[in-house]
Amino acid sequence: MNGDILATFAGALASGQIRVVDLTHTLSPDFPVIVMPPELGQSAPFRMERISRYDAAGPAWYWNNLSFGEHTGTHFDAPIHWYTGRDLPLNSVDTLPPSDMIAPACVIDCSAEAAKDADFLLTVADVAKWEKKHGRIPPRSWVLLRTDWSKKTGAAYANLLADGAHTPGPDAEVMRFLVGEREIIGFGTETIGTDAGQAGHFSPPYPAHHYLHGAGRYGLQCLANLDQLPASGAVIVSAPLKIQNGSGSPLRVLALVQERSTG
Amino acid sequence: MTEPLPKPNRKNPLVRTRQPLLPPASRSHKAHGLTLAAAAGRFMLQCCGECGQYTYPAREACPNCLSADLPFKDAPTGGVLLSETRIEVTGDPYFREHMPWRTGLVRLDCGPSAVVHLHGDCGGPGSQLSLSLQLDRVGQAVLFARPVSETPDMEDDPQWREMTADPKYRRVLITDGRSPVAVALAIALKKAGAAKVFVGVADRWKPFEEQKALEAIEGVEIVDLDLTSERSIQELAMDIGAKVEILINTADHVRPTHLFNAGAINTAREAMDHTAMGLMRLAQAFGPVMRSRGADGKTGAVAWVNVLSVHGLSNVPQFGVHSAAHAACLSLSQWLRSELRQGGVRVINAFTGPLDTEWFQTVPPPKVAPKVLADAIMDGLKRGLEDIYVGDVAKDIEARLFDNPKAVEREVGQ
Amino acid sequence: MILSRARQSYDGVVLAVPVTVPYQRYSIETAHWWMGKALRALAEGAGVSHRDFDGFSVSSFTMGPDSAIALTQHFGLTPRHLDHVPMGGASGIVSIRRAARAVQACDADIVACVAADTNQVDTFRKTLANFSRFAQDASYPYGAGGPNASFALIARHYMDTFGATREDFGKLCVAQRDNALKNPHALMKKPLTLEQYLSARPIAEPFHLFDCVMPCAGAEAFLVMREETAASLGLPFVRLLSVIERHNAFPGDPVQVRGGWVIDRDELYGMADVKPDDMDFVQTYDDYAVISMMQFEDLGFCAKGEGPDFVRQHTFTIDGSFPHNTSGGQLSVGQAGAAGGHLGITEAMRQLLGVAGGTQVEGAKLGLVSGFGMINYDRGLASAAAILARA
Predict the structure, then answer these.
(1) C351 in any annotated domain
(2) Record keywords: Transferase included (chain C) (predicted)?
């Protein structure tokens, strides 16, 4: 290890050899948030109220007050978010090891399946198929489920029917596998949760949350632009806000992608 | 015969919008006994507690026996027209815009003579009349005489329309289409002749059952409106603010909790955000433009209706947060009323008992059907009321609060 | 039973120095300016200093925020009898009655009775809007027609009940305009025909333009004193034979068809020892012709309900069978606020002093002046009348 690596890295960034892809949706009041049964507590949606805009309340400056739940917009889930991770050390966003905030990613493209079936579930077989083509998922990698769901908006994005949300996600078995057998650092999706829309009916319910956080791993959801990432080789920068005892936070998620040489 | 109100043309963009003017507003303290009655659509005059004689105008002592015991009591509404005039000239700027103006001198069945506003269909001197107390454009109580029996299009009498908020040919915004009363309101408004009914719906990505029913009503347009978002409200006001002549705020957020529950603060915050803060956001976005359009033609801005829980008047522990939120709304509505009054726009509060809906599932009957609430609001608009009590529970609480507010506090929810 | 006695006579009370400060339609001055003019004219007319007036009786709608006491300092008066008579068209005669008792009892020697009002551009509207509590609560918010609307209700009822027509009212108005053309102080300078009267634009049915007085600025004033005082100053004077006032008479009448004169007229004529027929002229309070007609009835010139017929039987010009409002009255001279109630008094004084000039009624020796005022709510509350005689 020497300083040359970072200098090389900076040069690659400057020359465009390394491309930076923004995986984040714009935080806006219109972006759907998770809906819980109404008698339960609800996540506050993103809201922005003006303090001043070069006006009587502040003649030369523009600024706003923000309010939102920890789990709004493109956001990060810390282990403390789920009961299974409640007793782990370093389980909240403020204690999260900074080194975990930068990690490689494997992108499993299921966009064709998700287009056909909103309730598409990622299985161990799908992972095996991916590994056959791209190699074994390295430990401490993010696994990102590409569904192109981020290209939908509004009602189609939330896709709420009378029996709840219908959005793709992982099944219970694949989560056990990824966390246990592949030791992934986290799992990311384009939908409102790391779990499928109907995951409340799985066993255990919400398996992504259950296994990830129970093992001290992380979740990323409401990701965008996964279609711009290679199946492997991208590096994810995901640093949540340092909120005391926070269970998660909206954040800017960046992917670093090395351009393939055309020559 | 009343000339039917012609359907208004589209606004001429080259013509200045008239600024709202108001009729004379000064009244004595005692005269507000009439305001109290008019606000609820009652006809009450001072009646001596000692000699039993009715007296008018409002005063401090009975001219018959000098008793100071002069409470306002319900009075018979009949009277005979003694004389009439049609005023063509006045120095008052408001009435100058409404000339000619018909007034009369009426001998009330209960005794006194009174100067009254006279409906155009009233016959000449000697005619029997039916009296009511109305709130005029400045919100003060006035006596209004109408013929004893209905006449065709009598609601369109120009003087009567100044005393009311008739939806006919007016455009209405219902702020929360997810409210259980929204569909019934939209149907009632169209029946009452509303030109258009905008229905605000938050989070259009969340499906809701009533959407089809609303879309099926001709003249209903569903618009994005999230009462918890300042931006959402302002954006809608930018689009349709100048087209809303009646705003009906159906916002509600019933989430039962216990005062000592850990999450009760969040529940309260959410309820306040939807109701009290929502009302304030609406007021900021729609209030100024409505106030400025109080004299915008024959169908200018005229009313702002808040659907409030009667429990806002006295807290019910079972719905403690709901009660508190509506108490806050009531206070805000009084503030709003004083602002909108400057434009001749009245603020109507419809106090309702528990609706016959999901959130009041555990509450025993009697409950209020949405249609009953909608009809009561239509009645309030057409009669120009300020306080409407809907349903047996609300009426019971109104009467009991009038009698002894402490007793209501002790007995409620038991 | 309340012990009651016939009232004492007004023997020895006289009126002198009729003053009219010429009217203006609008004035930028205040009521005080007009009062000052009137007081100076009274002092000059009496040949004394205004500081010699030991009584002061003032009427005005527009002197606010001052009251009578403030005016003493404003004008440098040191009176021992001070009165503010805010009774509109009845205040002139009411101030005579009170001043008469003061000088009779030697509480004062000379009482200056002054009525003055200004008329700035918005004065009239403001006066109406704040006229009285009942007006504010229960009549002004009903179309804000002011006295036109209130008296229109009374007039319409009178017409329906007693068969009066607009032509009857018009006959009085036209006669008064004829009289006014002979009065240089009258603001109305053009002749008026019955046709013009009938076809004028409506104001508040049944009233049209020429049924209504024109508000203006102006002042009227006179002095009340004992005969011995007048003699000592060498002043010509007229005698006060009798005077009455009555307020809120017949409160049970659902609509006004009569005034308080009915209660007191026998005493009015009895004290003066004269009959209605003896009058050489009558100055009624003519805010509207219907009220003049009501006064003909209530002051005994004809029976109740015969007013219309009385008008048809008589002519009302200076040389007519019933000389009436010989100055032209308020309808043609203008209504200078509270001074409208003093207009008939100064005119009657000039008639009896023989100095009425163009409006002089030949050989006038006895005249009746009537006042009426304060439509507090639905009716005029104050009524008053005086009989004056040539000395």
Answers:
(1) yes
(2) yes
Q: Which residues from B are below 8 Å from C150, CB to CB?
A: 115
Residue pair B54/B75 in contact (Cβ under 8 Å)? The answer is yes
Q: Does C80 lie in the same domain as C193?
A: no
Whether A201 is catalytic? no
pLDDT in tens, A161-188: 989 999 999 999 999 999 999 999 999 9
Under CATH, what is the fold of the domain A16-32+70-258? Glucose Oxidase; domain 1 (3.50.30)
Contacts of C213 in chain B (CB under 8 A): none
d(CA B354, CA B390): 10
Residue C310 and residue C221 share a domain: no
pLDDT at A35 (0 to 100):
86
- Token look-up 């008018």 returns B56
Residue B412: pLDDT band (50, 70, 90) is confident
All structural domains of chain A with their residue ranges:
16-32+70-258
Do C205 and C72 have their domain in common? no
Q: Which residue of the set A81, A209, A210, A213 is catalytic?
A: A81
Across chain B, how many H-helices and E-strands are there? 12, 15
- What's the confidence (pLDDT) of residue A2? 58
CA B162/CA B102 separation, integer angstroms = 13
| Numbered ranges of CATH 3.40.50.720 in chain B | 171-411
Q: What is the pTM of this model?
A: 0.89
**Do residues B35 and B29 lie in contact, with contact meaning Cβ atoms separated by under 8 Å?**
no
Strand A169-170 and strand A47-55: pairing? unpaired
Domain boundary among C237, C271, C296: C237
Out of A29, A48, A160, closest to residue B207 by CB? A160
Claim to verify: residue C244 and residue C231 sit in the same structural domain: no
Q: What is the pLDDT of residue C128?
A: 81
**Within 13 A of A183's CA, how many CA atoms are on the CB side?**
3
**C229 shares its domain with C342:** no
Interhelix angle B370-383/B182-191, rounded to 10 degrees, is 40
Name the CATH topology of B171-411.
Rossmann fold (3.40.50)
Closest CA to B10 of B196, B234, B197, B199: B196
Residue C5 within a domain: no
Range of the domain at C317: 132-213+240-390
Nearest to C342 by CA among C117, C25, C183: C117
Least Cα distance to A239 among A228, A230, A250, A229 occurs for A250
Compute CA distances C187 → C59, C211, C328, whole Å.
22, 15, 10
List of E strands, A98-252: 102-109, 121-122, 142-146, 160-161, 164-165, 169-170, 186-188, 218-221, 232-238, 248-250
Residue A15 pLDDT exceeds 70: yes
Q: Which two tokens stand for residue C89?
A: 């068209």
Asked if residue B89 lies in contact with residue B99, where contact means CB atoms within 8 angstroms, the answer is yes
> What is the mean predicted confidence (pLDDT) over A87-108?
97
Q: Which of B35, B55, B85, B131 to mutate to test the interface with C (most CBs of C within 10 A)?
A: B85
- On whether residue C6 sits in a domain, the answer given is no
Q: Is the CB of residue C87 less than 8 Å from the CB of residue C192?
A: no
Tens-place pLDDT, residues C331-367: 999 999 999 999 999 999 999 999 999 999 999 999 9
Q: Which two tokens stand for residue C320?
A: 């007519």
**Is chain B adjacent to chain A, meaning 3+ CB pairs within 8 angstroms?**
yes
Assign residue C98 the CATH number of its domain. Answer: 3.40.47.10
Whether residue C154 is found in the same domain as residue C281: yes
Average pLDDT over residues C89-116: 98
Q: Provide the ipTM.
A: 0.92
pLDDT score recorded for residue A263: 39
Give chain C's domain count: 2
Judged by a CB distance cut-off of 8 A, whether residue B191 touches chain A is: no
Tokens of C254: 């659902």
CA closest to A162 among chain B residues? B207
